[in-house]
Amino acid sequence: MDPVYMRLHGDDIIRRALEEDITYEDVSTAAVCPGPRAATVELIAKAPGVIAGLDVFERAFTLLDPSTRVEARVADGDEVEPGELLAQVRGDARVLLSGERVALNFLQRMSGIATYTRGMVRALEGTRTCLVDTRKTTPGLRAFEKAAVAIGGGRNHRYNLSTAVMLKDNHIDAAGGVAAAIEAARVRAPFTCTVEVECENLAMVREAVAAGADIIMLDNMSHDQMAEAIALIDGRARTECSGNVDAANIRALADLGVDYISSGALTHSAPILDISLKHLRLLDAPTGLESAQQPEDGR
Q1: Could you tell me where the beta strands, DSSP code E, fall in 82-134?
Q2: Residue 73's closest CA among 43, 41, 52?
Q3: Less Cβ around it within 10 Å: N or C end of the chain?
Q4: Is 136 an annotated catalytic residue?
Q5: Would you call 135 a catalytic residue per the annotation?
Q6: In the annotation, is 101 catalytic?
Q7: Which of 277, 247, 267, 271 is closest to 112 using CA atoms?
Q8: Candidates 58, 76, 219, 240; catalytic one
Q9: Is 79 a catalytic residue?
Q10: What's the pLDDT tens digit per position in 170-209?
């Protein structure tokens, strides 16, 4: 992820997750490892998939102890196989044990999204259609989840309500029609914003084209209706289709010649990628913290 975003916002997201998991003490770790001990642990893939979020994974440990090091064997976007060694983490054993679950939660979630996205993108090979995500993200994790979509080969739709105009059915009802909604958006929104209109039938499509919409979303239309709508638009606006898109039907939608296919499933239905931290090993050499706690005469 962008390092500036990580410093400004990402650290807060990860810190909140760590605070949720450790209120005052990790009692399990304190019991078996009461003092600092240098250690290593291995990050291992347990299922095939696409890796995403290694920087977030590492940050979950370095927020607990900046001296922790993650020696990665793969990079974001790489495809991995079960049993593959992905990285070795080095640091205080207490940090490795206490940060494990939070670090894995982020990495598994982001890698699952990237894996699911990669499969959908492959179904579009040979077409000009772009796969994009939606705002159907886990609250508080949108930036991480949208980053995972991009790593998987998809593209990001608008980030939030402030970055573009999208006039959905309720906006259109509130304005009194498609044309009125578009006119109001042109007056109120910054000129840099695109105006997208969600259309449920051909009458709405005709009105959106006439009113000068930049993007027309064909929402939950039948295959034949979408084909007719795309012919009617005839390049006068970019086209997007949405609604119950999955791996089984995405290619048929792309073959219509639509510019974009949006899928909420990329972020709300992708299963995690099974990844594990295994084989923690205490090292012979003490950590710097241990050395600092020893008397000068070694007693």
Answers
A1: 85-92, 130-132
A2: 43
A3: C
A4: yes
A5: no
A6: yes
A7: 271
A8: 219
A9: no
A10: 999 999 999 999 999 999 999 999 999 999 999 999 999 9
Q: Which residue out of 15, 46, 90, 101 is catalytically annotated?
A: 101
SS3 197: strand
Residue type, 136: K
For the record, the structure tokens of 27 come out as 């009692």
How far is residue 188 from each of residues 12, 184, 204, measured CA to CA in Å? Answer: 33, 6, 22
Task: Please determine, for residue 230, whether its predicted confidence score (pLDDT) is greater than 90.
Answer: yes
- Can 198 be counted among the known catalytic residues? yes
Mean pLDDT confidence for 213-239: 95
pLDDT for residue 287 is more than 60: no
Inter-residue contact 47 to 273 (CB < 8 Å): yes
Structure tokens at 210: 């006439």
Number of continuous H segments (helices) and E segments (strands) in the chain: 13, 12
Among residues 90, 136, 206, 251, which one is catalytic? 136
Tokens describing residue 89:
């983490």
Q: Catalytic one among 90, 158, 168, 238? A: 168
Please provide the average confidence, as pLDDT, over all residues in the chain: 93
Prediction pTM value: 0.92
For 77-107, the three-class secondary structure string (H helix, E strand, C coil) is CCEECCCCEEEEEEEEHHHHHHHHHHHHHHH
Has residue 286 got a pLDDT over 90? no
